[in-house]
Write a structure and sequence with these properties.
heterodimer, A: 222 residues, alpha/beta, Rossmann fold, 2 domains, four-stranded parallel sheet, 19% strand, B: 138 residues, 4 strands
Chain lengths: 222, 138
């Protein structure tokens, strides 16, 4: 899922400093699961905005609401129920949600409450880690299911760099050397020979290096 | 100009049971400041960040929570959860420039103990010295 975290409050308060009617709009998708932008977090943020404005001697109406997701047109359309009631929407969705509102409601003012961080999972309660770089050319079938693109600090495709010590990455002792882990796992699952495969020079055009990406499914488009 | 802070205390049902059984008069006689309002929750685990924040919205100058010792929570982790939420509020108050010291977590044994009163007195003294949370003067 998409992992995000709330922006510094000063940054958010600066966005809404001139607004009089603010809607903090939660997303019940990924950011709800990672406790960054669901209904509970939106309620907390709305309260913090009210307190922050109160401290500055400003008055504004701050309300909350939520959408099932902010990354589908059908759900964005339900924003129309708020039309004219707010002069600023603070979205607690990921960057996709903020972009979708901006795309589909050209005259609405929308601000991001979160910094969208990465594609990851919950390592344990309260801790999330990056697992996928969304590079558009998956190699997990060749690396034992562990991603060298995003879990190797250098995105190396042909084994470790030589800087790792004791299975830890040279950038930080808390970071595992994913190539060490790939090797260990390939041995465990009987695919050690796969380590001999030379990966070709990678075409990064499927990643963000090729500009904004789009998938068109003719079997689904109407 | 004198300043009497509006302090909202939140406490666990079990932690405060015997202290509150004494009644307001007796508590005040024992030294509980009269400007502290006690809000009782079924457990520290029930405490929400929004509960503490709403108190500030409604005019509180400070909040604090009194829960059981971490290893004596009737519901196992309620007191630990409360401490985490108080910590989150402290961090937010610091970010807002109101000061983390306007929120505090205390752990106290069940039954009537002086430390229940001491926590309130400590907060009252701290916030009286600090001044109002929003504008105004001491």
């Amino acid at each position: 899922m998409i992992i995000a975290e709330r922006k510094p409050l000063a940054e958010i308060l600066d966005m809404v400093k001139d607004a009089k009617k603010i809607l903090v709009l939660a997303c019940r998708g990924c950011v709800s699961v990672c406790s960054a932008g669901g209904e509970r977090e939106a309620e907390i943020l709305a309260s913090l905005i009210r307190i922050g404005l109160k401290k500055e001697g400003k008055k504004a109406k701050v309300a909350t609401n939520s959408l099932v997701r902010q990354c589908d047109k059908e759900y964005i359309d339900t924003i129309d129920q708020f039309k004219g009631k707010y002069d600023a929407i603070v979205s607690t969705a990921c960057g996709v949600g903020v972009n979708f509102i901006a795309n589909l409601r050209p005259t609405d003012t929308v601000y991001p409450a979160l910094n969208t961080s990465f594609l990851g999972g919950s390592a344990e309660q309260g801790i999330w880690s990056e697992q996928c770089g969304g590079c558009g050319d998956c190699v997990l079938h060749l690396t034992g299911g562990l991603c060298p693109v995003v879990r190797c600090a250098k995105s190396l495709m042909n084994g470790p760099c030589g800087g790792s010590v004791g299975g830890r990455c040279e950038i930080h002792a808390n970071v595992e050397c994913i190539w060490q882990s790939i090797h260990d796992r390939m041995v465990r699952i009987g695919q050690a020979d796969g380590m001999d495969r030379i990966a070709p020079i990678r075409d990064w055009s499927t990643a963000t290096h090729g500009g904004p990406r789009k998938i068109v499914r003719d079997d689904l488009t109407i | 100009m004198s300043f009497t802070p509006n302090i909202q205390a939140f406490c666990c049902h079990y932690t405060s049971q015997q202290s509150l059984a004494e009644g307001a008069e007796a508590l005040h006689a024992d030294g509980m400041p009269k400007n502290i309002t006690i809000n009782r929750l079924v457990c520290g685990g029930k405490l929400q960040e929004t509960t503490l924040l709403k108190a500030f919205e409604e005019g509180a100058d400070a909040v604090f929570f009194v829960g059981c010792p971490l290893d004596q929570c009737h519901n196992k982790k309620g007191s630990a959860r409360a401490a985490k939420r108080v910590l989150a509020v402290k961090e937010s108050l610091q970010e807002l420039g109101l000061g983390a010291e306007r929120a505090e977590m205390f752990h106290s044994e069940r039954g009537f103990h002086q430390e229940f009163i001491t926590a309130a007195q400590l907060m009252n003294k701290r916030i009286t010295n600090l001044g109002p949370a929003f504008g105004g003067s001491k």
